[in-house]
Design goal:
The chain has 105 residues and is mostly helical. It is built from one helix and no strands. The two termini are 62 Å apart.
Length: 105
């Protein structure tokens, strides 16, 4: 009834490039050159970081704020998981109770 049609690859048309011909070359040995001695690179001059008492207090305050925010997020996620688990347990008890009362009648 239904026969699959096998596609036929058409022959290429148009201009095709012939393969490139590689010409052999001769290698002439030369005198080895020694690398010039390198001078040591100067150390980059980096400015030293100087912390003022106000900057230290600001960094400590920001660190405390980050810790408090991350802690609040983690505690709220744990609380959400606990509430969800408790509600699933209550639902399981109610469904078990409903099913057990139907079998007693």
């Amino acid at each position: 009834m239904i026969r699959p049609k096998i596609p036929v690859n058409p022959t290429p048309t148009g201009y095709t490039m012939p393969p490139a011909v590689i010409q052999p070359t001769s290698i002439t040995p030369g005198a080895p050159t020694l690398p010039a001695p390198m001078a040591p690179a100067p150390a980059p001059a980096r400015p030293t970081v100087q912390l003022t008492p106000g900057a230290v207090i600001a960094v400590a305050g920001m660190g405390t704020a980050v810790v408090l925010v991350v802690g609040a997020v983690l505690v709220s996620m744990l609380l959400a998981v606990a509430i969800t688990g408790a509600s699933v347990a209550v639902c399981a008890l109610v469904i078990r109770s409903i099913l057990s009362t139907d079998t007693r009648r």
